[in-house]
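Quiz preparation item.
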């Protein structure tokens, strides 16, 4: 995968603001920042069009004092076709919780699952972020990267529930 040089015309004020952002956040050089923006946009577009298998994270902020909300969140996770791989739960204060769920399944199932949870009474904010391994499979390994990683991988078939 070669690198191509391109020329882009950008408003001077917009470029100054972009440079200040890069400096404030320590984001490296313009080229890398623009590549990151392009990648992010490609992932966003891909996730909107995803029809097959996808992975994602669902972030929820909710009022745990809302009657039965915690139980309903758990029940939905157990009964939906979207596969909840892992959950991180953080108490933000005496009544608010942050929950982040790692998901895997068909993109349409993940969207449906997220909409159901975000729509529950007591959920203050929710956001689903999805990606597809298809975008990253063609990535070449960098110098020193092994073709065999030290962690295991599962396939969608591995995550399907087995019939009793």
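Solution:
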């Amino acid at each position: 995968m070669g690198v191509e040089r391109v020329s882009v015309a950008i408003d001077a004020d917009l470029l100054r603001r972009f440079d200040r952002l890069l400096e404030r956040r320590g984001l490296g050089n313009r080229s890398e920042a623009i590549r990151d923006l392009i990648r992010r946009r490609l992932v966003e577009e891909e996730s909107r069009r995803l029809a097959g298998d996808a992975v994602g994270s669902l972030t929820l902020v909710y009022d745990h004092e809302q009657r039965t909300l915690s139980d309903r969140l758990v029940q939905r996770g157990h009964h939906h076709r979207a596969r909840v791989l892992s959950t991180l739960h953080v108490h933000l204060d005496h009544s608010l919780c942050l929950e982040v769920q790692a998901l895997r399944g068909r993109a349409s199932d993940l969207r449906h699952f997220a909409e159901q949870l975000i729509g529950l009474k007591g959920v203050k904010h929710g956001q689903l972020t999805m990606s597809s391994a298809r975008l990253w499979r063609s990535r070449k390994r960098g110098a020193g990267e092994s073709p065999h990683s030290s962690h295991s991988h599962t396939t969608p078939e591995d995550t399907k529930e087995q019939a009793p």
